[in-house]
């Protein structure tokens, strides 16, 4: 049982060597035992389109049932559909076999217990159960069920577009293709479906990542070629959103959140709006300007959902594309619903989408810059970085997740990735000179704690 498969808020590893059928059966037993101890004897199960997902799901179900959990098999569904089903059925538990945006060689498990995504503590408890063989026994039932129509109907009743839009939706040859074209057509959009044929040879093999511009390039090209109002792309399991405006430009999630927060705060003034440490400093300014309370928090969808629930905030989002609405929705990260809310706002403005987003500029900013390191080394390096922060002066230091340094003209961040053995960097500044100075500051800091590393900037 390799320790590295237990991530802060999910379980993920290499197919065949780490994520084996035997391991998935044992994991199913641990998950079922945890669910039963929380008073929930039923488990929703779904899976993505990876070739390995079908047999790994079958193994998981064997384990769940052998520990006495009743299984409701939703089949191939995006993660937000399972989240929706868990709420619809009364906050029961759920498991999705997926590795999100990671390559096809990987697979894993995302979990919901009693209406809440798994936290680091939950994952640690599952690992302990596996290590000690602490499982219940029983003979759980099994049946199949589809909730896709209910999901689509619920969003259709929730969203009102005031004018038709032409949009391109990129299903990525993955489970989002099951939802996106149907949903946005039902809302009244003219939909151009891109990579939505799940009989294509690339289905389940091409893994989309909406946080990466190269993953969205074909979508951007099709928005321009078709004169579309907007392009929407999705993560491999549908919980992350990517946006292309009418000029073919990628709109980062922090800018999308500016639009969403401005509209939400006009209806719910004074609300908390959460965002992660990788987001632009301009986002906090926009939230404050429109009467909200900006709350910066740790990166990671589970951390944001947990904090959002604690504060009862109506909106939260992460730079990598997770967006959670809780004013008119269930508080989970749902890219399809977030896309629909964005469309609702855009239809209330007669201008093209690129003009709407132009009202919310950011500074000169880098994408997230990833520096791979040896497994476990990322935490050791960050411990030394935090020890060295006392050398800094004349700046605002934030350490809720890594080290973020803010000045009047810009900011920089280094943190340990939650999803891979790597360090993550990001920078934003009012001008190139300030950006260069910030990056020089971080180079000097990293040279002190890890002189052998070559920075990705």
CATH class of the largest domain: Alpha Beta
Rounded Rg: 22 Å
Briefly note the CATH topology name of the largest domain. Alpha-D-Glucose-1,6-Bisphosphate, Chain A, domain 3
Mean pLDDT: 96
Q: Briefly note the structural class of the backbone.
A: alpha/beta
Give a quick account of the main beta sheet: strands, pairing sense, barrel closure: 7 strands, mixed
* Termini Cα gap: 36 Å
- Separate helix tally: 14
Number of strands: 22
Q: Strand percentage, roughly?
A: 15-25%
Q: Can you describe what's shown?
A:
The chain has about 450 residues and is an alpha/beta fold. The chain has four domains: about 5-145, Alpha-D-Glucose-1,6-Bisphosphate, subunit A, domain 3 (Alpha-D-Glucose-1,6-Bisphosphate, Chain A, domain 3, 3-Layer(aba) Sandwich), CATH 3.40.120.10; about 155-250, Alpha-D-Glucose-1,6-Bisphosphate, subunit A, domain 3 (Alpha-D-Glucose-1,6-Bisphosphate, Chain A, domain 3, 3-Layer(aba) Sandwich), CATH 3.40.120; about 250-360, Alpha-D-Glucose-1,6-Bisphosphate, Chain A, domain 3; about 365-450, Alpha-D-phosphohexomutase, C-terminal domain (TATA-Binding Protein, 2-Layer Sandwich). The chain has 14 helices and 22 strands. The strands form four sheets. Strands 1, 2, 3, 4, 5, 6 and 7 form a seven-stranded mixed β-sheet that branches. Strands 17, 18, 19, 20, 21 and 22 form a six-stranded antiparallel β-sheet that branches. Helix 1 crosses helix 2 (about 55-65). The longest helix is centred in the last third of the chain and has 18 residues, at about 430-450. The protein is globular and about 65 Å long. It starts with 10 loop residues before the first strand and ends in an 8-residue tail after the last helix. The model has no long low-confidence stretch (mean pLDDT about 95). Belongs to the phosphohexose mutase family. Its cofactor is Mg(2+). It holds the Pfam family PGM_PMM_I. Its EC number is 5.4.2.8. This is phosphomannomutase.
């Amino acid at each position: 049982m390799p320790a590295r498969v237990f991530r802060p808020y999910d379980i993920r590893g290499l197919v065949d060597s780490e994520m084996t059928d035997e391991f998935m059966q044992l994991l199913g037993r641990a998950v079922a035992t945890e669910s039963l101890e929380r008073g929930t004897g039923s488990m929703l199960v779904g899976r993505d389109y990876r070739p390995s997902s079908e047999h790994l799901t079958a193994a998981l179900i064997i384990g769940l049932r052998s520990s006495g959990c009743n299984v409701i098999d939703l089949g191939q569904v995006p993660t937000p559909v399972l989240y929706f089903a868990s709420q619809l059925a009364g906050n029961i538990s759920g498991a999705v076999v997926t590795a999100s945006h990671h390559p096809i060689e990987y697979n894993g498990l995302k979990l919901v217990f009693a209406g809440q995504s798994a936290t680091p503590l939950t994952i640690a408890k599952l690992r302990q159960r596996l290590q000690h063989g602490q499982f219940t026994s029983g003979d759980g039932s099994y049946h199949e069920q589809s909730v896709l129509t209910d999901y689509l109907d619920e969003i259709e009743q929730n969203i009102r577009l005031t004018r038709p839009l032409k949009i391109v939706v990129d299903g990525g040859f993955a489970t989002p293709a099951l939802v996106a074209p149907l949903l946005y057509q039902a809302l009244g959009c003219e939909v151009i479906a891109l990579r939505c044929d799940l009989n294509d040879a690339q289905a389940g093999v091409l893994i989309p990542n909406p946080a990466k511009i190269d993953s969205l390039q074909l979508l951007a090209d099709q928005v321009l070629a078709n004169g579309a109002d907007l392009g929407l792309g999705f993560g491999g399991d549908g919980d992350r959103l990517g946006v292309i405006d009418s000029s073919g430009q990628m709109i980062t999630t922090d800018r999308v959140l500016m639009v969403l927060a401005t509209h939400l705060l006009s209806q719910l003034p004074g609300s908390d709006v959460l965002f992660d440490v990788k987001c632009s400093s301009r986002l906090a300014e926009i939230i404050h300007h429109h009467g909200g309370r900006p709350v910066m928090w740790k990166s990671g969808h589970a951390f944001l959902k947990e904090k959002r629930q604690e504060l009862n905030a109506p909106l939260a989002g992460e730079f990598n594309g997770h967006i959670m609405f809780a004013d008119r929705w269930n508080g989970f990260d749902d890219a399809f619903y977030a896309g629909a809310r964005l469309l609702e706002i855009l239809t209330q403005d007669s201008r093209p989408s690129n003009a709407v987003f132009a009202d919310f500029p950011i500074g000169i900013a880098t994408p997230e810059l990833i520096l791979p390191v040896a497994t476990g080394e990322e935490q050791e390096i960050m411990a030394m970085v935090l020890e060295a922060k006392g050398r800094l002066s004349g700046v605002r230091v934030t350490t809720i997740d890594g080290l973020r340094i803010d000045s009047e003209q810009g900011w920089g961040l280094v943190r340990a990735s939650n999803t891979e053995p790597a360090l993550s960097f990001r920078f934003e500044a009012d001008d190139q000179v300030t950006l260069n100075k910030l990056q020089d500051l971080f180079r000097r800091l990293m040279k002190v704690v890890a002189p052998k590393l070559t920075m990705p900037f």
